[in-house]
Amino acid sequence: MSKVDNELKCAVVLVNLGTPEQATPSAVASFLGRFLSDKRVVNLPRILWLPLLYGLILPLRSRRVAKLYQQIWLKGGSPLKMFSEQIRIKLAKKLAGKYEVYLAMTYSEPDIPNVVQQVLAAGHQRILLLPMYPQYSVSTTAPVFDSYTKSLKNAYNIPELRLVKEYYDEPAYIAALAHSIKQHWELTARGEVLLFSFHGIPERYARNGDPYPQQCEDTAAKVAALLGLKQTQWRLCYQSRFGKDPWVKPYTDQLLTQLAEQSVKSVDVISPAFSVDCLETIEEVSCELRDVFMEAGGEQYHYISALNDSPEQVDLYCQIIEKHTQGW
């Protein structure tokens, strides 16, 4: 294919958060340092935060987190990277001849600047940037845009850009989540309560205008409605809080304890903010939070996997790509 032909095609760049290159303390420290030093992620004064991060948090957390990664590590790497790459491969196959599909990571390799350079070297002048975050947040989607624009700081010919800001209410996304839950119920005894557990953000982010909590609420309500659930049959909550600042509530661990104390014996938990399974879902949501529920008196706890590289997820991204590239 000639360079001229490539210019007529759109390059789709999928972007996920990132992952350590290896399940070792040094690799985890490198990844977490890159991630947690981003002002979008931890919005604290640098003069206070960075010494604390590099002097105390990383030395203490890296070994413990590395052990957790070792428990979930796959032959080809971390689940987040493996599932994201499988999605890219399947999309590239379905969209062959019309789009070139790339995968980038915000805080690890292949990073956004290097992928953007690959796209430009291939001759593309149209880029669809598709962060793999259904709900927008200043701590996830915004850093993707930051890194993209920074990568073009010295470019002479800037490509045309379209950014998929969010897809939290896309009918295909809602339907895919509902289908995943129904599939789980067909294979496993249905729990008394379905929990939509989203990754949390600090309350002050929401007060400053981050629409993430509202979008999470909308996603959960739409899926619950499609499933025909009564209000008593589902709950929304947030996990993964970090630090001493208050985060958006209710907290998943506290809600699980309350449900158990209210004689709820079985729950199903899904984490719709994650497009693919990763350390947070496999270790925290599937294991740690299960222990919380069981220790409080619960009897059955089932985690419903992320959409990962399922046909529904691939079809969803195909629809999003077609929608956002109309006119190109």
UniProtKB/TrEMBL annotation:
UniProt EC number: 4.98.1.1
Enzyme class, UniProt record, top EC level: lyase
Compartment(s) where it occurs, according to its Swiss-Prot or TrEMBL record: Cytoplasm
SUPFAM superfamilies in the cross-refs: Chelatase
Binding site residues for Fe(2+): 199, 280
Biochemical pathway: Porphyrin-containing compound metabolism; protoheme biosynthesis; protoheme from protoporphyrin-IX: step 1/1
Catalytic activity as recorded in UniProt: Fe-coproporphyrin III + 2 H(+) = coproporphyrin III + Fe(2+); heme b + 2 H(+) = protoporphyrin IX + Fe(2+)
Protein's UniProt keywords contain RNA-binding: no
Entry keywords, A to Z: Cytoplasm, Heme biosynthesis, Iron, Lyase, Metal-binding, Porphyrin biosynthesis
Top-level taxonomic group: Bacteria
Coiled coil: none
Pfam families from the UniProt entry: Ferrochelatase
Cited function: Catalyzes the ferrous insertion into protoporphyrin IX.
Family to which the UniProt record says this protein belongs: Belongs to the ferrochelatase family.
Name of the protein described by the UniProt record: Ferrochelatase
Organism: Agarivorans gilvus
Lineage start: Bacteria, Pseudomonadati, Pseudomonadota, Gammaproteobacteria, Alteromonadales
